[in-house]
Every structure is written in C-alpha cells, then in structure tokens.
Amino acid sequence: MTAASPSPESIQSLILQTLSSSGFIPDSRQLAVDGRVLNSAEDQGAVRGVLDSLQSREMIEYKQITTTSFTLTDEGRTINENGSHEIRVWKALPVKGQGEPVTVQELQKLVGPDVAKVGQSRAFKNKWIAKDGNGFVRAVEAPSDETADQLREINEKGDHPGGEGVTKELQKRKLIQPKKHIHYSITKGSNFSTEVKQLETDLTVEMLQSGAWKDSSFKQYNFAATGQPTDGGALHPLLKVREEFRNIFFDMGFTEMPTNRFVESAFWNFDAMFVPQQHPAREMQDTFYVKDPVKSLRPDEEYYQRVRKVHEEGGFGSIGYRAPFSKEEGEKLLLRTHTTAVSTAMLYELANQKGGFKPAKMYSIDRVFRNETADATHLAEFHQVEGVVADYNITLGNLIAFMQEFFAKTGNHKLRFKPAYNPYTEPSMEVFSWHEGLGKWIEIANSGIFRPEMLEPMGLPKGVRVLGWGMSLERPTMIKYKISDIRTLVGHKTDLDQVKKRAAVRLEKGDD
C-alpha cells in the first residue's frame, strides 16, 4: 500500500522555506518532507495543488516540465534476462561444417515457435545465420546483441543515449513503453513571503470604519470568470419531434383534438369503433383495466342502443357480429389503447353539433397504453400521432394523396401501401417507407376509411366518409436521433445531458 502524500501545509512550508534560502527550485521532485522524496506522480499532484494556491496570491511563480522515461514490457524483460530472439536463434545453430544444419522444425523445438519466427527473420536481416541445405548454420562469430544491450541501458537509466531513433524502434517492437513524468520549477513571486496571509474576499463597512482595510490583503477578483453554468429546462426529443408534427398538421389545415382523457371507457375505446367485444385485444394481456371506479357513465341512450344493435344484429349494410353485446363489458374503465378513442368521440360530436355536420380535418398526438413487456423497441406507454379527415364522397384515392402529402413533409418520399385488416376501417392499408440507412422498406403507419357501422350510428349523413391514419411518435424520433433502444429515450435510462444537447428537427430534410 502506498503511503499517503504529506499534508498541503507541510509541502507549502517546505516550498516557501526552500525558496527563502535558495531563491529557486529547479526540480520539485527533489523536495523531501520528513525524509520522503516527493518524486511520485501522486506526490507531484499534491505539489501542484499547493503551487496553484501560492501562485494565486502571487507568492511564487512556477513552470511545468514534462519528461518521458521508458520501462520494459514483459517481452522486453525476457530479452533483458535471456538475450534477444535473434541471438537465441544464433546460439541454437552450429558453426558451418561442425555439425548438422538445424531445420525449421528443430529450431522451433529448441527455442520455441515465437522466438524461432522472430529471431530467424532478424538474424537473417543481420546476416548472422545462413541457409545450408534444409537447415541453418551460423554465418558469423560472436555477434553483438545490440537489442539486449539497449534494453539493459533503458532498464537502468529509463532512456537510451542513442535518442529517439532507438526508443522508437523498440516501441515499434513492443519491447518498451513510455511513461510521462510531470514536475515543476519554482521561483519567488512579487508578493513572496514565508508566511501565508489570509486574504480578505470582501471590503466590509466594519473594515472601513475601523481602518483595518489598510493592513489587510485582498483576494483578487477574476472579472473574466464566466461563473457556474446555470441548469435550465430543455425539451425532450419526443417533444421536439412532436412540435414538428404539429406544425405539419397546422400547415395542412388541421385542428387539434383534446386528448387529456387517459382513462377511457371500453365503449368509446372499442364498442363505438365497431371492435367486437370478443376481440383478443380487449383481454387483460393487451389492455390495462382500472379497478376503481368499477364502471363508467353510460353514453347517450339512443346512440348506445344503435351501437348495440349494429354489433348484435347488424345494420347500415352490415350483418354485424351476431354475438351477445354486454353492457357490463362496455362500462369497464381502461387506459386508452389508442387515440382513435378520442377521434371517435370527436366524430360523434361532429355529427351532433348545432347546425349539423360540417367537413373537418383533425389530428391528435398523445400517450396511449398497452400491456406489453418493455424491450428495445416496445414500451407499455408510447405516443400515437393520428389524423382524420371527414367530408362528403371522399375515397381511398384521397386518403393516399393525403398521406403522400403528409409523409413528404416528414421526409418520407418513397411510399408503398399494403392491404391490411382493422375492425373499424375498410378498406385498410399499412404504409411502408424506404429507409436509406437500413436499405429496406419499413412500416411507418396504419390507415383506412372508417366503416359505416361505426359512423352512421353516430348520426353522420350517409355520404360522409372519414379517412384516418396513425403512427407512433417514438419511431421517427429514434430514427432522427439514431437511438437504438427506446428505453434510453423514455424512462430511467434516459441520459439527461443528451436531452439538453439534442437539437430541434426539420423532418422535411429527409429523415426517413
């Protein structure tokens, strides 16, 4: 165990007393406190702290001196003890004409494979050995082992008089390694004294009244100091990307839907959207249900009965699901699994507003909840971006055109559309975009035209159709900021420093 460095007070006293008698300290490694020479890196670190303190009072001045010494590596120590690879190969061979030449296989047995490989090459280069038939023999008498001599010199003195050329070659062969040393030369300053006075930091009223300020020494003010950086708030990367999506929707004439209702009834989250009560997504493994309160308020009774009827018996051109419709199932409370529950409630209001239906374009961006196991690409809580367009006689072609315009503004210019199934949209499409970085098509959204079974029970006129598409907020954020694990974007693994540093985005530059 290394003994602790002497106290700063003892080092300070030693430096001041030494300067008082000699006026100059050329090498701080020569200082000794209680018989301990301060030549280790740890000791010189303690010396540096004292020097900075004294220099701030202008009692001393110092300069840093950096030197380099060399130590042997494990291989270098082996050569220092046993000789170089080339000399060991030379010693293992016979003089020409005085014995059988040694083959490569025999040489490896005599000195080892590694020594034979390196030593044979260097011995040939030095012309110490020669080829004789199928083996090797000595070509010179008693060569000088220069490598071993150089390493012995370095082992004793930490350097070699041959200079940089020698040490560079030995470093290249990984026989030595450099070690940096820092020490200091010290001289007296303009306010040198063998005693350290306590510097005053403030000029007080009492000092002015008593006159004590005349005999006091004051600490200099550093007017160039910038001060401690202040910690301010910063937008999370999700909020930065969310703001860009909001601007895109506003540019396209959309209005924002209220999305502050995280707890929703199963009626609005599923039933009103024509999702069957027997659908697997409604089970506990996919949905978070609320225990208290146990049930929600009922919607408008006439609307509720129309929804029940279309599920059980059909209507509006549909045969329905022909399955029992449970009032208790629809009254359950849950954490909403999609923001389409908000869109459904807004469409119902649109159908029953004063003055009747009027075409609308609406969007929402907010959190939804799924009972999923968290991993690198999934969380139990994430954000959904959703847009809906309600108007007379709009078609699938209008939906595709809307999405092409929308995703072009987000930087996604190469799109493909694939037929899909959703209980509440028909036709339905998955949207894929070409990802230049990954070199493949990736799914970025789901879309479709809301079914008549969902819209007409609300009271929307027959000619009205509603287009909808949705995507997550996390995926484009991860792509934009090159984040591979969603748990480092949201949650306890988030790097708050990176939250502050990540810049705002402009998606239209092509961040697909």
TrEMBL record:
It comes from the Eukaryota. Its EC number is 6.1.1.20. InterPro entries: aa-tRNA-synth_II, aa-tRNA-synth_II/BPL/LPL, Phe-tRNA-synth_IIc_asu, Phenylalanyl-tRNA_Synthase, PheRS_DBD3. It catalyses: tRNA(Phe) + L-phenylalanine + ATP = L-phenylalanyl-tRNA(Phe) + AMP + diphosphate + H(+). The keyword Protein biosynthesis applies. Its cofactor is Mg(2+). PROSITE patterns: AA_TRNA_LIGASE_II. Keywords: Aminoacyl-tRNA synthetase, ATP-binding, Cytoplasm, Ligase, Magnesium, Metal-binding, Nucleotide-binding, Protein biosynthesis. SUPFAM superfamilies: Class II aaRS and biotin synthetases (SSF55681). One of its GO terms (molecular function) is tRNA binding. It is found in: Cytoplasm. GO terms for cellular component: cytosol; phenylalanine-tRNA ligase complex. CDD domains: PheRS_alpha_core. GO terms for biological process: phenylalanyl-tRNA aminoacylation. Residues 240-479 form the Aminoacyl-transfer RNA synthetases class-II family profile domain. Belongs to the class-II aminoacyl-tRNA synthetase family. Phe-tRNA synthetase alpha subunit type 2 subfamily. Tetramer of two alpha and two beta subunits. PANTHER family: PHENYLALANINE--TRNA LIGASE ALPHA SUBUNIT (PTHR11538:SF40), PHENYLALANYL-TRNA SYNTHETASE (PTHR11538). This is Phenylalanine--tRNA ligase alpha subunit. The lineage of its organism: Eukaryota, Fungi, Dikarya, Basidiomycota, Agaricomycotina.
